Structures are given as C-alpha cells and as structure tokens.
Amino acid sequence: MIAPRRHHESPGMWCVIGAGPSGLTALKSLRELGIPAECLEREDDIGGNWYFGASASRIFASTRLISSRPLTEFGDYPMPKNLPWHPHHTACLDYLRGYAEHFGLRPFIRPNSTVEQIEPAASGGWSVHLTGQAPRTYEGVVIANGHNHAPRMPAIPGRFTGTLLHAADYTAPDDPLAISGKQVLVIGGGNSGCDIAVDVCRHAAATFHSTRRSYHIVPRTILGRPADLRGERLLKMRVPVWLRRLISLRLIDRSIGLPHRHGLPAPDHRLWETHPVINERLYCCIDEQLITAVPGVERFEDTHVVFTDGRRECFDVVIFATGYRITMPFIAPEHLRSELDDAACDLDDAPPDLFLHMLPRHRNDLACVGLIQPDSGQWGLTDLQARVVARMALARRHAPKTAAWLRRICQQSPSLTPIRYVDSPRHRLEVEHHSYRRRLERLIASLDRRLRREITAAGQAAVGCRRSLRAHG
Asked: What is the per-residue burial (b if ≥16 Cβ within 10 Å, else e) of 332-350?
C-alpha cells in the first residue's frame, strides 16, 4: 500500500501559478501589500513565454516586440532607454529577470513545480497538487500561466501527407526542420502567421500565405516613431475613433501602403476591428514575389492543397499559425464561470466569466492575471491587474466592507472596449488598451480610498496595512 503524500499547510499564503511577466507582477504586488505569497513555475527559470527554448515558450528566434518599449514596460520598472523601440526577445528576458532581482522576487519563486490540479480545500482556501510533490494549501490562488498552450488546429477536410506544423512548434527556418528548398504554406493572418511567412520566404523554394480575409497591416514605426505611440497621442487627445482611423490610415499608406497597393483585396472590416497585425516587411516580400498571398484553404488532397478560389498547389510543409485554445486543465471550469452548460475543461467555446477578464464573480480568493489580449503592450496592463488582485487579497483579510463592495462590483458586466471586434475566437480576450487601463486605474483608486478608510477605522492593529497602501497606492 502506498502511503499518502503529506499535505503541506501554508496558512495565509497566496499562490501564484507561473513566473512569466504576469506571474512576476502578481507576486510583487501581493508581497508589497504584506500578503505572503510564493510563485510556482514549471520551468527551471523565470520568463514564461519569453524564456526562449523552454517548453512553455511560443516565440521564434527572430521575435522582437511588436508594441513599443514605453507601451510595454511595467509602470514601476522602465525598460532601459538604450534599448531599441522594439527590443529583441533576449533583451525582454533580461528585463524580466532584472525586474525579479530589483523587487527581490527570486527567493519566493519555486522552479520545477508543475501544477497538476487546484481544488477548494476542505478547511478553506485552495489545495494545489504538484507533480512529484506534496499538495499545498493556500489562502488564495492567482492563475498567471498565460493562454498560449493548446494549439488551435482548424478542421480542414481531406488529408495532407506532407509535414504539418503549428506555430507553437516553429522556432526558425531550420528548426524543427530545414525549410530550405521546400514548398511552404503558412495558414493564418495574425502576427505569428505574417512573421513566419516573412521568416521562411528567403529560405523556402516558394512561400504561400493563406488567410481567410484581408487584414490591415500596421508597421512598427511610422515616420521614425513607433506607430502605437502616435496612436496613443491621439487617444490622450480624445480624438474620435472615426478621425483616428482616418489619420492612421493615411499615415500607414504613406509608410508601407494599404493592401490594395500590393495587389491584396480590401479588408472586410475597419481598422482596429481585428487584433492589430504589426509587420513592416510582409508587403515588401509580397512585392518581391517571395510570398504569394492566397485565400483560405478548402481541402487537402495528399500533398496538394485546394484553396477557396479553386487554385490547387503542391506543398512539402504546411504551418498552421491559427492561434490557441483557452485551456486551464488544472482547475474545474465552475470555479471560473458562474454558469455552465457542461463540465468540460476546455474553456475555448465559453471563456471564463471573469470581471474585467480577471476576477471571478462569486469568490475573492481566486484571480487570473494576464488573461487578456490587448491591442498594445500587455505588461503594464497586467501590472495594474495585479494591483487590483493584491487589494482584493488585502480587503479579504482586513476590510470586509471593501471586500463586499468589490464583490458587488464584480457582478457587473462592463463593456471592455469602445471597439466592436470581428466575431472570431482570437478576439474573445481582446481589450482596447487605453479604455481598459483607465478602468483599472479607477478601480485601484476606489479600492485604495475604501481600504484606507476602513483600515484606519480598525485602529493600530492595521498600521502595517496603512503604510503599505501609502507606499504603493
């Protein structure tokens, strides 16, 4: 008979799952407000998606930021000014590791800790089960492990007998296989699809790029300045969306041209109604006939692909850049959704029912940080999300009235964006960064006012909480 593993108790401690950008800022925010917390990371080091070569990473050897440095960095830890506007992934990893060192997070991160399951503990809080380790009980859990884990593979009729890859497995034109001399088809019009098509086209014998619709392409820089910083200026000036579109389209046309100037059909949606595709090289490769743009795929026929316009081509390699399903296999969906039609662990068809994509509506000891896809840089937004979560944890401990107020707020269903996005799976987590950031900032300010008032009324016992709020409010 196998003896049961000992269950470790961590009374009052919070658990953060994942030591990528979202997990690091969640750990930092909790500990800043005096909430004991530790971070469980399945890899041997921090960085998450930016830890190139790790099993959790989904970046390519050539990856660099598509959002600018100022609109990506954490609010309290600027990226070095000597970095380019759009740093390479190696600089991003160095930045994240510097962040962990600066805020003293390393001692509270447990690498090589794979979470298998989390479930409510009988005594309250959460029981976290780890591979090869004893379960641990925590007061609360922050899920910050990202959402690019389970590749989404489209259902295409027929069978392809060549090599099939997903973008999750692609790292370079010679890894996981040598592209040189091969006929390659890249399927998917998002950032990954465009980046891979550009990446392989100078190595492959021929590169075709298949998209179901035409997209607006935005360059990283326009007239020497990051395109997103130009857009941010218009947002701060409160320029109406129709005028911002007009200005932006004219600037894009002056910079790289609009789709019709490169023989592509006009998009069936307005600018910003899909997640922005940032690429300044795609049109050049199309113009140089290094990439052939083709419509969606109708079916496979052995080594041939038939497109929706009737065209038929032979390929050696097909790369799906078709996104990822929303999955959290270690937690039962009912803990993330208030109403369920079934008990499936795949959240893709019914994403978590979370307030502002982060707080469950029915409990205050669980949160998600980073479960968003903004139209600009993400780390600054996850920093704000983490500050909200830390205040929720503080209210749970020391301010029951504030905690009850937050629970009432979480029952609301606010519109997260002034933009109406194209209805597709890739937009289920989409947020317009400017309005989303303002909403988080207002929520933090409201929580700080209520926490200070309630904690001050509680007397001297809460002096440490008041000091933390003054220092980090």
From this structure: bbebbbeeeeeeeeebbeb
